[in-house]
Amino acid sequence: MLFPARRLKPHPGRGVHGQTCQIVASTVCGGVVLQAENLAAFRGERLVFAGLSFSVAAGGAMLLVGPNGSGKSTLLRLLAGLGRVEAGRLLWDGQDALADLPTHAGRVRYLGHQDAVKPGLTVAENLRFWGAPTAITRALEAVDLARLADLPGRMLSAGQKRRLAIARMAMTPAALWLLDEPTLGLDVASVGRFGELLAAHRSRGGIVVAATHLPLPLPDATEFRLA
Ligand SMILES: Nc1ncnc2c1ncn2[C@@H]1O[C@H](COP(=O)(O)OP(=O)(O)OP(=O)(O)O)[C@@H](O)[C@H]1O
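Above: the input record for the complex with adenosine-5'-triphosphate. Below: its predicted structure, written as tokens.
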């Protein structure tokens, strides 16, 4: 079902214009902005939200907050190119972000509720698709899992699985990190290490959009509330 944008009530979301891109590397180039204009989405037959508008600039972060069922995960899926946009537009650097889904997929890392750890592979083997051994070691050190590198994935605790998922996300450069309750199950030290990865990503001009009910180590993030 198509939903005419002009009938959708705008959401009082705030735009964000964060730092400019500091490093033009294999991640993000300067001035990139993620912009949503009057987005609407259904889940099943139900309109979950409509009229969502916001923007996040390179180096910026936005926290999606709101009660259970308000559509935070739905919005993240939509930003990842995984959901259907019923109305409105998602722009990347001024262009339709979803016109070329493979290109969009290449700029996105999505950390959802599932950690996608393969139980029969070791911790290190779980990352081997994503980089060379040195990069794997670095990524495991960043989440303090290096000493468990040879342990089968099935033997990890919930928090350790989440740390492995974070390591996988951080291994390959991508401009846009989409995080759904990323710190669920993490201990205090792991949240601190995750904060360092987030800061490094943002200092390279990366963008973070995160849905959460918990405090996140994202200084200066703008809140975007879903009703
Ligand atoms: N697979 C699905 N099929 C149909 N409806 C769904 C599906 N997944 C979620 N929904 C509905 O979409 C709405 C938004 O759900 P969503 O998961 O986006 O909310 P949320 O804000 O992330 O919630 P929470 O804070 O509990 O994680 C809810 O009403 C939910 O019942």
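Notes for the reader.
Residues 64 and 211 are 5 Å apart (CA to CA).
The radius of gyration is 18 Å.
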